[in-house]
Amino acid sequence: MTSPAERVATEFAETFGGKPEGRWWAPGRVNLIGEHTDYNDGFVLPLALEQGVAAAARPTGDPVLRVRSVQQEGTVDVALSDIAPGVVSGWSAYVSGVAWALREAGHEVPGLDVVVDGDIPSGAGLSSSAALECAVAVAWNELAGLGLSRHDLAAVTQRAENDVVGAPTGGMDQMASLFGRAGHLVFLDMRTLEAEEVPFDLAAAGLALVVVDTQAPHAHVDGEYAERRRSCERAAEILGVPALRDVTVDALDAALTRLGDGAEAGLLRKRVRHIVTENARVLAVVAALRAGDDLRTIGPTLTASHASMRDDFEITVPEVDTAVQAVLDAGAHGARMTGGGFGGCVLALVEADAVEAVVRAVEAAYAAAGFRAPSAFVAVAADGARRL
Ligand code: GLA
Questions:
Q1: Which residues of 257-268 are buried (b: 16+ CB within 10 A; e: fewer)?
Q2: Pocket of ligand 1, candidates 169, 245, 281: which has the most ligand atoms within 8 Å of its Cβ, to mutate?
Q3: 123 and 36 in one domain?
Q4: What are the CA-CA distances from residue 136 to residues 120, 193, 237, 308 (Å)?
Q5: 339: CA distance to ligand 1 center in Å?
Protein backbone atom coordinates (compact mmCIF):
# COMPACT_ATOMS: atom_id res chain seq x y z
CA MET A 1 0.00 0.00 0.00
CA THR A 2 1.33 3.43 -0.88
CA SER A 3 1.40 6.30 1.59
CA PRO A 4 -0.25 9.72 1.14
CA ALA A 5 3.24 11.23 0.69
CA GLU A 6 3.90 8.88 -2.25
CA ARG A 7 0.45 9.29 -3.74
CA VAL A 8 0.58 13.11 -3.85
CA ALA A 9 3.81 13.00 -5.86
CA THR A 10 2.39 10.55 -8.42
CA GLU A 11 -0.89 12.37 -8.63
CA PHE A 12 0.85 15.73 -9.00
CA ALA A 13 2.66 14.55 -12.11
CA GLU A 14 -0.59 13.20 -13.57
CA THR A 15 -2.64 16.29 -12.76
CA PHE A 16 -0.24 19.17 -13.39
CA GLY A 17 2.71 17.54 -15.17
CA GLY A 18 6.29 17.56 -13.93
CA LYS A 19 7.40 17.56 -10.33
CA PRO A 20 6.18 19.49 -7.32
CA GLU A 21 8.64 21.89 -5.75
CA GLY A 22 8.27 20.00 -2.53
CA ARG A 23 6.04 17.92 -0.29
CA TRP A 24 4.79 18.94 3.11
CA TRP A 25 3.05 17.04 5.90
CA ALA A 26 0.83 17.93 8.82
CA PRO A 27 -0.59 15.46 11.34
CA GLY A 28 -4.04 14.98 12.80
CA ARG A 29 -4.35 14.99 16.56
CA VAL A 30 -5.97 13.21 19.43
CA ASN A 31 -6.66 15.17 22.59
CA LEU A 32 -5.66 13.33 25.78
CA ILE A 33 -7.69 15.68 27.96
CA GLY A 34 -9.09 19.24 27.98
CA GLU A 35 -12.30 19.29 25.91
CA HIS A 36 -14.04 22.52 24.87
CA THR A 37 -11.62 24.39 27.12
CA ASP A 38 -9.70 25.95 24.22
CA TYR A 39 -12.27 28.61 23.31
CA ASN A 40 -12.62 29.37 27.03
CA ASP A 41 -8.96 30.49 27.16
CA GLY A 42 -8.18 27.29 29.05
CA PHE A 43 -5.83 24.31 28.93
CA VAL A 44 -5.59 21.37 26.54
CA LEU A 45 -3.23 18.39 26.24
CA PRO A 46 -3.29 16.89 22.73
CA LEU A 47 -0.74 14.83 20.84
CA ALA A 48 -0.03 14.89 17.11
CA LEU A 49 -0.72 11.57 15.38
CA GLU A 50 1.31 9.57 12.87
CA GLN A 51 -1.68 9.92 10.54
CA GLY A 52 -2.01 13.17 8.64
CA VAL A 53 -2.22 15.04 5.36
CA ALA A 54 0.46 15.33 2.67
CA ALA A 55 0.57 18.20 0.17
CA ALA A 56 2.69 18.30 -3.01
CA ALA A 57 2.90 21.87 -4.26
CA ARG A 58 4.47 24.15 -6.86
CA PRO A 59 4.00 27.90 -7.24
CA THR A 60 2.49 29.07 -10.51
CA GLY A 61 2.99 32.25 -12.50
CA ASP A 62 -0.64 33.33 -12.20
CA PRO A 63 -2.54 34.20 -8.99
CA VAL A 64 -4.71 31.11 -9.14
CA LEU A 65 -5.07 28.17 -6.76
CA ARG A 66 -5.51 24.81 -8.46
CA VAL A 67 -6.09 22.08 -5.92
CA ARG A 68 -6.73 18.40 -6.28
CA SER A 69 -7.51 15.91 -3.54
CA VAL A 70 -6.69 12.27 -4.24
CA GLN A 71 -9.89 11.46 -2.36
CA GLN A 72 -12.20 13.67 -4.45
CA GLU A 73 -13.26 14.00 -8.07
CA GLY A 74 -11.88 16.80 -10.20
CA THR A 75 -9.63 19.79 -9.60
CA VAL A 76 -10.84 23.01 -7.99
CA ASP A 77 -9.63 26.22 -9.70
CA VAL A 78 -10.07 29.53 -7.95
CA ALA A 79 -8.48 32.96 -8.43
CA LEU A 80 -6.86 34.04 -5.16
CA SER A 81 -8.65 37.39 -5.30
CA ASP A 82 -12.03 35.61 -5.50
CA ILE A 83 -11.60 33.73 -2.22
CA ALA A 84 -13.70 35.17 0.57
CA PRO A 85 -15.88 34.03 3.46
CA GLY A 86 -19.15 32.68 2.14
CA VAL A 87 -17.85 32.33 -1.41
CA VAL A 88 -15.93 29.05 -1.28
CA SER A 89 -17.34 25.84 0.19
CA GLY A 90 -16.65 22.13 0.42
CA TRP A 91 -13.31 20.48 1.20
CA SER A 92 -11.30 22.94 -0.91
CA ALA A 93 -12.33 25.79 1.43
CA TYR A 94 -9.78 24.43 3.93
CA VAL A 95 -7.07 25.09 1.34
CA SER A 96 -8.34 28.32 -0.21
CA GLY A 97 -9.15 29.61 3.29
CA VAL A 98 -5.46 29.49 4.12
CA ALA A 99 -4.63 31.64 1.08
CA TRP A 100 -7.33 34.12 2.12
CA ALA A 101 -6.09 34.27 5.73
CA LEU A 102 -2.48 34.77 4.61
CA ARG A 103 -3.52 37.61 2.33
CA GLU A 104 -5.69 39.14 5.06
CA ALA A 105 -2.61 39.11 7.31
CA GLY A 106 -0.84 41.17 4.65
CA HIS A 107 1.26 38.49 2.98
CA GLU A 108 1.89 38.12 -0.74
CA VAL A 109 1.11 34.56 -1.74
CA PRO A 110 1.75 33.06 -5.15
CA GLY A 111 -0.76 30.94 -7.01
CA LEU A 112 -0.28 27.27 -6.31
CA ASP A 113 -0.74 23.92 -7.97
CA VAL A 114 -1.31 21.50 -5.12
CA VAL A 115 -2.34 17.90 -4.61
CA VAL A 116 -3.39 16.69 -1.17
CA ASP A 117 -4.07 13.30 0.34
CA GLY A 118 -4.32 11.91 3.84
CA ASP A 119 -4.81 8.87 6.01
CA ILE A 120 -6.89 10.28 8.87
CA PRO A 121 -10.43 8.91 8.92
CA SER A 122 -12.51 11.99 8.15
CA GLY A 123 -15.41 12.91 10.40
CA ALA A 124 -13.87 10.96 13.27
CA GLY A 125 -12.89 14.02 15.27
CA LEU A 126 -9.17 13.53 14.66
CA SER A 127 -8.69 16.92 12.99
CA SER A 128 -8.25 15.96 9.37
CA SER A 129 -9.37 19.51 8.53
CA ALA A 130 -6.70 21.17 10.69
CA ALA A 131 -4.11 18.83 9.17
CA LEU A 132 -5.16 19.89 5.68
CA GLU A 133 -4.98 23.58 6.59
CA CYS A 134 -1.60 23.21 8.28
CA ALA A 135 -0.02 21.13 5.48
CA VAL A 136 -0.94 23.77 2.94
CA ALA A 137 0.06 26.64 5.27
CA VAL A 138 3.57 25.30 5.85
CA ALA A 139 3.93 24.77 2.09
CA TRP A 140 2.87 28.33 1.23
CA ASN A 141 5.01 29.73 4.05
CA GLU A 142 8.09 28.13 2.58
CA LEU A 143 7.33 28.58 -1.11
CA ALA A 144 6.58 32.28 -0.66
CA GLY A 145 9.50 32.75 1.75
CA LEU A 146 7.17 34.29 4.33
CA GLY A 147 9.21 33.16 7.33
CA LEU A 148 6.12 32.81 9.53
CA SER A 149 6.50 31.17 12.94
CA ARG A 150 4.36 28.25 14.07
CA HIS A 151 2.36 30.67 16.19
CA ASP A 152 1.73 32.84 13.11
CA LEU A 153 0.68 29.77 11.14
CA ALA A 154 -1.66 28.70 13.94
CA ALA A 155 -3.38 32.08 13.81
CA VAL A 156 -3.68 31.94 10.00
CA THR A 157 -5.05 28.39 9.90
CA GLN A 158 -7.53 29.06 12.68
CA ARG A 159 -8.74 32.14 10.82
CA ALA A 160 -9.20 30.02 7.69
CA GLU A 161 -11.31 27.56 9.67
CA ASN A 162 -13.36 30.19 11.54
CA ASP A 163 -13.95 32.70 8.76
CA VAL A 164 -13.80 30.82 5.46
CA VAL A 165 -14.87 27.30 6.41
CA GLY A 166 -17.22 28.89 8.94
CA ALA A 167 -16.63 26.60 11.94
CA PRO A 168 -16.32 28.51 15.26
CA THR A 169 -13.58 26.21 16.59
CA GLY A 170 -11.06 27.14 19.24
CA GLY A 171 -7.58 26.64 17.79
CA MET A 172 -6.37 23.57 19.66
CA ASP A 173 -6.35 21.38 16.56
CA GLN A 174 -4.14 23.67 14.48
CA MET A 175 -1.77 24.24 17.42
CA ALA A 176 -1.47 20.48 17.98
CA SER A 177 -0.78 19.85 14.29
CA LEU A 178 1.92 22.54 14.21
CA PHE A 179 3.56 21.97 17.62
CA GLY A 180 3.37 18.16 17.85
CA ARG A 181 6.47 16.30 18.91
CA ALA A 182 7.26 12.56 18.74
CA GLY A 183 6.93 10.90 22.13
CA HIS A 184 5.33 13.98 23.69
CA LEU A 185 2.04 15.58 24.53
CA VAL A 186 1.61 19.26 23.74
CA PHE A 187 0.42 21.17 26.81
CA LEU A 188 -1.20 24.36 25.58
CA ASP A 189 -2.34 27.39 27.46
CA MET A 190 -4.92 28.69 25.02
CA ARG A 191 -4.84 32.19 26.53
CA THR A 192 -1.11 32.86 26.28
CA LEU A 193 -0.68 30.28 23.48
CA GLU A 194 2.36 28.97 25.29
CA ALA A 195 3.20 25.43 24.17
CA GLU A 196 5.12 22.97 26.35
CA GLU A 197 6.26 19.54 25.23
CA VAL A 198 5.52 17.00 27.98
CA PRO A 199 7.23 13.59 27.65
CA PHE A 200 4.70 10.77 27.24
CA ASP A 201 6.55 7.47 26.97
CA LEU A 202 3.73 4.96 27.00
CA ALA A 203 5.86 2.09 25.70
CA ALA A 204 8.38 2.44 28.55
CA ALA A 205 5.48 2.17 31.00
CA GLY A 206 4.12 -0.93 29.24
CA LEU A 207 1.01 1.00 28.20
CA ALA A 208 -0.82 1.91 25.00
CA LEU A 209 -3.32 4.57 24.03
CA VAL A 210 -6.09 2.94 22.02
CA VAL A 211 -8.29 5.17 19.87
CA VAL A 212 -11.69 3.71 19.00
CA ASP A 213 -13.52 5.36 16.12
CA THR A 214 -17.13 4.90 17.16
CA GLN A 215 -18.38 5.49 13.58
CA ALA A 216 -21.37 7.22 15.15
CA PRO A 217 -23.06 9.52 12.66
CA HIS A 218 -22.24 13.14 13.58
CA ALA A 219 -25.71 14.65 13.68
CA HIS A 220 -26.07 18.39 14.47
CA VAL A 221 -22.38 18.68 15.39
CA ASP A 222 -21.92 22.21 14.04
CA GLY A 223 -25.02 23.67 15.64
CA GLU A 224 -24.38 21.95 18.99
CA TYR A 225 -20.74 23.07 19.04
CA ALA A 226 -21.70 26.69 18.38
CA GLU A 227 -24.42 26.48 21.05
CA ARG A 228 -21.93 25.21 23.68
CA ARG A 229 -19.58 28.03 22.79
CA ARG A 230 -22.34 30.64 23.11
CA SER A 231 -23.41 29.22 26.48
CA CYS A 232 -19.86 29.48 27.80
CA GLU A 233 -19.55 33.07 26.58
CA ARG A 234 -22.90 33.96 28.10
CA ALA A 235 -21.91 32.44 31.45
CA ALA A 236 -18.61 34.35 31.45
CA GLU A 237 -20.52 37.53 30.74
CA ILE A 238 -22.92 36.95 33.65
CA LEU A 239 -20.01 36.12 35.96
CA GLY A 240 -18.13 39.22 34.81
CA VAL A 241 -14.96 37.41 33.75
CA PRO A 242 -13.15 37.60 30.39
CA ALA A 243 -13.49 33.81 29.95
CA LEU A 244 -14.42 30.75 32.02
CA ARG A 245 -10.70 30.11 32.40
CA ASP A 246 -10.85 32.81 35.05
CA VAL A 247 -13.13 30.77 37.32
CA THR A 248 -11.03 28.51 39.56
CA VAL A 249 -12.21 25.28 41.16
CA ASP A 250 -12.14 26.99 44.56
CA ALA A 251 -14.46 29.72 43.27
CA LEU A 252 -16.74 27.30 41.44
CA ASP A 253 -19.51 26.96 44.02
CA ALA A 254 -19.80 30.71 44.44
CA ALA A 255 -19.88 31.16 40.66
CA LEU A 256 -22.60 28.53 40.27
CA THR A 257 -24.69 30.31 42.90
CA ARG A 258 -24.22 33.64 41.11
CA LEU A 259 -25.65 32.12 37.93
CA GLY A 260 -28.98 31.95 39.75
CA ASP A 261 -32.01 29.70 39.24
CA GLY A 262 -34.31 28.92 36.35
CA ALA A 263 -33.96 26.82 33.25
CA GLU A 264 -31.24 28.86 31.52
CA ALA A 265 -29.21 29.13 34.73
CA GLY A 266 -29.49 25.39 35.29
CA LEU A 267 -28.00 24.72 31.89
CA LEU A 268 -25.27 27.32 32.26
CA ARG A 269 -24.31 25.91 35.65
CA LYS A 270 -23.65 22.52 34.09
CA ARG A 271 -21.62 24.01 31.26
CA VAL A 272 -19.53 26.09 33.67
CA ARG A 273 -18.93 23.11 35.95
CA HIS A 274 -17.56 21.11 33.03
CA ILE A 275 -15.16 23.80 31.85
CA VAL A 276 -13.87 24.69 35.31
CA THR A 277 -13.34 21.09 36.43
CA GLU A 278 -11.90 20.12 33.03
CA ASN A 279 -9.23 22.81 33.26
CA ALA A 280 -8.34 21.50 36.72
CA ARG A 281 -8.14 17.95 35.34
CA VAL A 282 -5.74 19.00 32.58
CA LEU A 283 -3.49 20.68 35.15
CA ALA A 284 -3.66 17.58 37.39
CA VAL A 285 -2.59 15.31 34.53
CA VAL A 286 0.25 17.64 33.54
CA ALA A 287 1.42 17.79 37.18
CA ALA A 288 1.44 13.98 37.38
CA LEU A 289 3.38 13.68 34.14
CA ARG A 290 5.93 16.34 35.16
CA ALA A 291 6.38 14.58 38.51
CA GLY A 292 7.12 11.31 36.73
CA ASP A 293 4.20 9.51 38.40
CA ASP A 294 3.11 6.10 37.11
CA LEU A 295 1.08 6.91 33.99
CA ARG A 296 -1.66 4.56 35.19
CA THR A 297 -2.55 7.10 37.88
CA ILE A 298 -3.97 9.53 35.30
CA GLY A 299 -6.60 6.97 34.25
CA PRO A 300 -9.33 7.99 36.72
CA THR A 301 -8.92 11.65 35.71
CA LEU A 302 -9.51 10.71 32.06
CA THR A 303 -12.65 8.83 33.06
CA ALA A 304 -13.85 11.74 35.20
CA SER A 305 -13.47 13.98 32.13
CA HIS A 306 -15.77 11.64 30.26
CA ALA A 307 -18.43 11.75 32.98
CA SER A 308 -18.26 15.54 32.92
CA MET A 309 -18.73 15.65 29.12
CA ARG A 310 -21.62 13.19 29.41
CA ASP A 311 -23.48 14.68 32.38
CA ASP A 312 -22.56 18.38 32.41
CA PHE A 313 -21.50 19.41 28.92
CA GLU A 314 -23.87 16.87 27.34
CA ILE A 315 -21.85 16.21 24.21
CA THR A 316 -21.66 12.42 24.19
CA VAL A 317 -23.90 9.96 22.35
CA PRO A 318 -24.84 6.33 23.19
CA GLU A 319 -22.13 4.87 20.93
CA VAL A 320 -19.47 6.89 22.76
CA ASP A 321 -20.74 6.07 26.25
CA THR A 322 -21.02 2.38 25.34
CA ALA A 323 -17.41 2.29 24.10
CA VAL A 324 -16.11 3.99 27.25
CA GLN A 325 -18.00 1.57 29.52
CA ALA A 326 -16.86 -1.45 27.50
CA VAL A 327 -13.16 -0.55 27.65
CA LEU A 328 -13.35 0.21 31.38
CA ASP A 329 -15.09 -3.12 32.00
CA ALA A 330 -12.31 -4.78 29.99
CA GLY A 331 -9.67 -3.31 32.29
CA ALA A 332 -8.67 0.06 30.80
CA HIS A 333 -7.08 2.38 33.37
CA GLY A 334 -9.12 5.30 32.05
CA ALA A 335 -11.19 6.26 29.01
CA ARG A 336 -12.96 9.24 27.54
CA MET A 337 -14.42 10.67 24.40
CA THR A 338 -11.93 12.90 22.60
CA GLY A 339 -12.67 15.85 20.29
CA GLY A 340 -15.70 18.04 19.78
CA GLY A 341 -18.28 15.37 20.57
CA PHE A 342 -21.58 13.93 19.30
CA GLY A 343 -19.71 10.92 17.95
CA GLY A 344 -16.10 10.64 16.89
CA CYS A 345 -13.50 8.78 18.89
CA VAL A 346 -12.96 7.38 22.35
CA LEU A 347 -9.47 6.95 23.78
CA ALA A 348 -8.46 4.36 26.35
CA LEU A 349 -5.30 4.03 28.41
CA VAL A 350 -4.59 0.30 28.57
CA GLU A 351 -1.83 -2.19 29.31
CA ALA A 352 0.08 -2.79 26.07
CA ASP A 353 -0.78 -6.49 26.16
CA ALA A 354 -4.50 -5.75 26.66
CA VAL A 355 -5.07 -3.82 23.42
CA GLU A 356 -6.67 -6.73 21.59
CA ALA A 357 -8.94 -7.66 24.47
CA VAL A 358 -10.12 -4.07 24.89
CA VAL A 359 -10.92 -3.69 21.19
CA ARG A 360 -12.77 -7.02 21.18
CA ALA A 361 -14.80 -5.83 24.18
CA VAL A 362 -15.99 -2.75 22.28
CA GLU A 363 -16.83 -4.85 19.23
CA ALA A 364 -18.89 -7.22 21.37
CA ALA A 365 -20.71 -4.37 23.12
CA TYR A 366 -21.47 -2.74 19.75
CA ALA A 367 -22.78 -5.97 18.28
CA ALA A 368 -25.03 -6.45 21.31
CA ALA A 369 -26.35 -2.87 21.04
CA GLY A 370 -26.87 -3.11 17.27
CA PHE A 371 -24.37 -0.30 16.54
CA ARG A 372 -22.26 -0.10 13.39
CA ALA A 373 -18.92 -1.94 13.93
CA PRO A 374 -16.21 0.35 15.34
CA SER A 375 -12.60 0.56 14.19
CA ALA A 376 -9.55 1.11 16.36
CA PHE A 377 -5.86 1.92 16.28
CA VAL A 378 -3.04 2.54 18.73
CA ALA A 379 -2.12 6.24 18.83
CA VAL A 380 1.57 7.15 18.65
CA ALA A 381 2.70 10.72 19.40
CA ALA A 382 4.42 12.07 16.29
CA ASP A 383 6.08 15.27 15.07
CA GLY A 384 4.15 18.31 13.90
CA ALA A 385 3.87 19.90 10.46
CA ARG A 386 7.05 19.87 8.35
CA ARG A 387 8.59 19.53 4.91
CA LEU A 388 9.05 15.93 3.82
C1 GLA B 1 -13.00 20.58 18.03
C2 GLA B 1 -12.50 22.01 17.84
C3 GLA B 1 -11.45 22.38 18.89
C4 GLA B 1 -11.93 22.05 20.29
C5 GLA B 1 -12.51 20.64 20.36
C6 GLA B 1 -13.14 20.33 21.68
O7 GLA B 1 -11.96 19.69 17.79
O8 GLA B 1 -11.93 22.15 16.57
O9 GLA B 1 -11.11 23.74 18.77
O10 GLA B 1 -12.86 22.99 20.74
O11 GLA B 1 -13.48 20.41 19.35
O12 GLA B 1 -12.19 20.29 22.69
A1: ebbeeeeebebb
A2: 169
A3: yes
A4: 16, 22, 37, 36
A5: 6
* Single residue among 142, 164, 197 that ends a domain in this structure: 197
Residue at which a domain ends, from 164, 197, 230: 197
Q: How far is the CA of 321 from the centre of ligand 1 (A)?
A: 19
The pLDDT assigned to 220 comes to 65
Task: Order across the sheet with 43-44: list the strands.
Answer: 43-44, 184-189, 194-199
Q: 47: domain range?
A: 4-197
Indicate the pairing of strand 345-351 with strand 75-79. unpaired
Is there a domain that residue 387 lies in? no
Task: Say yes or no to pLDDT of 303 above 80.
Answer: yes
Beta carbon of 374 within 6 Å of any ligand 1 atom: no
As a residue count, the chain comes to 388
Q: Is there a domain that residue 224 lies in? A: yes
> How many structural domains is the chain composed of?
2
Give domain status of residue 64, yes or no.
yes
- Ligand 1 close to Cβ of residue 339 (< 6 A): yes
Q: How far apart are alpha carbons 242 and 249 in whole angstroms? A: 16
List, in order, residues 6 or more apart from 207 with CB less than 8 Å away: 295, 296, 333, 349, 350, 351, 352
Tally helices (H) and strands (E) across the chain: 11, 13
User: CB atoms < 10 A from the CB of 223, how many?
Assistant: 10
Considering only 80-84, 220-224, 330-334, which range has the smallest mean pLDDT? Answer: 220-224
- Measured from the Cβ of residue 255, the count of other Cβ atoms closer than 10 Å reads 22
CB 66 within 8 A of CB 84: no
What's the confidence (pLDDT) of residue 1? 75
SS3 content of the chain, % helix, strand, coil (to 5): 45, 20, 35
